[in-house]
Design a protein that fits this description.
The chain is mainly alpha-helical. 66% of the residues lie in helices and 0% in strands. The chain has 2 domains: 7-37; 38-185, no CATH class. The protein contains 8 helices and no strands.
Amino acid sequence: MKPSQKLIITLLLIIILITISFVPIKNIFYKNCLIENRDSDFMTILTRDTSYCQSSSDPDFCYKYYLMLHAIYDGDERFCEDTEEFREVCEGFVIEGANMDCNILESQLDKSICFASLKNDISYCGNLPNDVKVFCEENAAIVSASISKNDQSCVKINDDLTKAFCFAWVNKDSSLYLEEIESFCS
């Protein structure tokens, strides 16, 4: 065997060994990415499994947000009963719908989300500080989509995972969200 052939075979073996040893590491990173990016708030809402809230950064908010979105989407005010500080907003969206008076809400953030949701216009979030503006825009789009049961509001969301959640939620197809996580992590 020529020295050049030995070199080529040696290089091929090294490449194969590196590839084989890298695959399990890549799989570990992939699995961690899936776990970290399956937002527990969204998974709770999509699956109606509140155990996901236990791994949320704010379990209390996770549970109340789950109840509120289901109340709005299902048109069932009984979901609002345990939403505590969101109860007024929740019942307003469910009972009064488009006739809700957003001005009765105390918080500027709640008012902005309310107006943006009912008018299907995220520009109502524009007067908020940058750290809550995106939160307002995303939640207004999700609530608006829940009220109308139309996924066109979801298009306004910039974050791909949140947008995928919105489409999955309105279309009652959790695979739309899970597929986006898969592509995000691969």
